[in-house]
Amino acid sequence: MAGSVGGGSAMTRPGTWWLSTAALLLVAAAPLSNAQSPPPVAREFRAAWVASVSNIDWPSKPGLSARAQQAELIAILDRAVELHLNAIILHVRTAADALYDSRLEPWSEYLTGQQGLAPEPAYDPLAFAVREAHARGIELHAWFNPFRAFHPSSKTPDTALTHVTRTGIVSAPRYGTHRWMDPGDPRVRAHSLAVIMDVVKRYDIDGVHIDDYFYPYRETDPVTKKEIPFPDDSSWAAYQRGGGLLARDDWRRDNVDVFVRDMYRAVRGARKPAVKVGISPFGMWRPGYPEKICCFDPYVQLYADSRKWLQNGWLDYWVPQLYWQSDTVSRSYPALLAWWVSQNTKQRHMWPGLFTSKAGGPWLRPGEAWGAGEITRQIELTRRQPGATGEVHFSMRSLMDERADSLAHRLATDSYREPALVPSTRWLDSVPPRVPAARIAKDVQTGGRRLLLSPAAGEPVWLWTVQELRDGRWTTRILPAEQRSTAITRNGREREPEAVWVSAVDRLGNQSAVVRAR
């Protein structure tokens, strides 16, 4: 343990001052072991959606200053660190708008209160989110609604002049209380794909994510009480004139299939393997799959043949929205999860979506809450299911709850007490980084000991794992790669650990061999 350091770390950029403190929150006890064999680091995807539509999660309301928006986002990311989450899925396109600096679509009204109006002072929220998430060792996935063009929560009297409802570059007819870009119009699919690929190419995101809004959920005419047919007569007629032979419902499903397939191919063709593609469909494929499951049919209602996308491998992770309680027979959480795993022939990541907002909160009416125990039970059921390796919470506001009996408290002290790495995505990259250099030196300011970390040449490091053996028990910390030192002891009186082992982890979760720090 020769050498000494000045006590500081290499972190000098604003926004990273908190890392040493936050890293201490990532300590968790592991079973007894010996100094020559550190235990494996836990692997589990732990994510939360951060919804911008209707200002569900972020920003809390439209029209906040740029500084206030940034402060709210930092609070979300800091809470993610506290809860040992390792990914955030951020809503960046709600209705043919942008919560980032886009040349293709106007600024979202959920940011500024007026569509097309940029934040003031000017900044790019997505660039900010990526930078701050990565500084905390958290993945940032960009979430898009590919076809929605207007949401009824909109307060903007007029859409921006550059919005698709004004430009006419694609068809976006009214549908009940919404406006919806027609998936049967090839220009719509091309435009939405261009929007997604613009983000993939310009931002250092970790994932592209779409949810269950393909064709819209059916709406009913308030006067006639009859179901409103989707207004795609024009694109249907064009398909028929071109010699198309599919029945209309099959044609609609094919339109969605083509978009999902082309999106995956385009992202993979961008030569950015760190960008995973995730899809979060309605939680069932069809009624009766598995037996006793009913009653909504997204295959018919949304024209979503979701099982086909999974079995064709047109994605890297699958997040079926299993928004039902574990003991519900007709929509059983464990039965649906087991069925989806059985359909996962390409062995993609299976990370179900949980209706975490039902755990309790002021947004629920009396009697609506499930209680935090239902969500922790679903986490345990997921862990027991071979082939499922994590979950995604809807949504982040339910995890910002400060009450002592809240789900957030239970996660921090029980379910997510131990930090975890995201499972590796080996079909995109299976080569781990080289073994790093790790040494322990005296801190001349505190008299304690610090661990100094240096990456080897070659592939960049994304995270460090630091495992310490004290009194026969292991603790694990996961640190962002830009943190090149961390305290082992805080002063000269504190006893040093018996052993410290370190590894390097890349963007797709590949872990180097461990090395013992000396």
Describe this structure in words.
The protein is 26% helix and 18% strand. By secondary structure, the chain is of the alpha/beta class. The chain has two domains: 126 residues, Immunoglobulins (Immunoglobulin-like, Sandwich); 326 residues, TIM Barrel (Alpha-Beta Barrel).
Short description, anyone?
The chain has 518 residues and is of the alpha/beta class.
Number of H- or I-type helical stretches: 13
CATH topology of the largest domain: TIM Barrel
The overall strand count is 21
Widest beta sheet: strand line-up: 12-11-10-9-5-4-3-14-13
- The CATH top-level class label of the largest domain: Alpha Beta
CATH architecture of the largest domain: Alpha-Beta Barrel
The CATH fourth-level homologous superfamily of the largest domain:
Glycosidases
Structural class: alpha/beta
End-to-end Cα distance: 5 Å
Q: What profile does the largest beta sheet have?
A: 9 strands, parallel
Average pLDDT over all residues: 92
The percentage helix is 25-40%
Count the domains. Answer: 2
Low-confidence stretches: 1-32
Beta-sheet strand percentage?
Answer: 15-25%
Globally, the shape reads globular
Q: Provide the gyration radius in Å.
A: 24 Å
Which secondary structure elements does this structure contain, and how are they paired or packed?
Layout: E1 4-5, H1 19-24, E2 29-32, E3 45-50, H2 66-82, E4 87-93, H3 109-112, H4 125-135, E5 139-144, E6 148-150, H5 164-167, E7 174-175, E8 178-180, H6 186-202, E9 207-210, H7 233-241, H8 248-269, E10 276-279, H9 298-301, H10 306-312, E11 317-318, H11 333-343, E12 349-350, E13 353-354, H12 372-384, E14 390-393, H13 407-415, E15 437-443, E16 449-454, E17 463-470, E18 473-480, E19 485-489, E20 499-505, E21 515-516
Parallel strand pairs: 1-15, 3-4, 3-14, 4-5, 5-9, 9-10, 10-11, 11-12, 13-14
Antiparallel strand pairs: 2-18, 6-8, 7-8, 15-16, 16-19, 17-18, 17-20, 20-21
Helix pairs in contact: 2-4, 6-8, 12-13
